[in-house]
Amino acid sequence: MEPLSNEEIRRAVQMALVEDIGQGDVTTLATIPENATSTAAMVAREPLVLAGRDLAVAAFCELSGTLKIECLARDGQHLTAKESLLRVTGQTRAILTAERVALNFVQRLSGVATLTARFVEAVRDTRAQILDTRKTTPGWRRFEKYGVACGGGRNHRFGLSDMILIKDNHLAALRFEPSDPIGAAVRRASG
User: pTM of the prediction?
Assistant: First the structure.
């Protein structure tokens, strides 16, 4: 799978920040002095396979171009509990306002990558392959498929236009074929 493009990341992060911040982070604005600075670390709470790091970085950068971000791990890397994957230093308000969006991207995609890696490991000594499906969260397909790839799985079909895949629902729609609905479906698909 291709890496996520800067444009894909930017669009997703901007949309997520608009959704989360709305008219402003009222708690942070009310409680944190404007000139306050902090250092925060994103730390794995349990063993995981990292995915979505660049989305987290973009969330922080979108709110302040002056933050210093140190990437301590890369997507696809196996991390242990308590291992840091990212460190952010700078304006406290920007860090606090971006943190939930940054964490949501990393938690969701690392969850996909970690579960995929478990399945990949389970079939390691076989000829089986772990493939994903199109059963993704609406609007998140590209990102969840990226998480599968980070976990060592393979992307199957991105969309309906990628290949023909005759399933039970197609065969159910052909149930009144005079004979052999599977053969009829294959003939039509081949023709």
Answer: 0.90
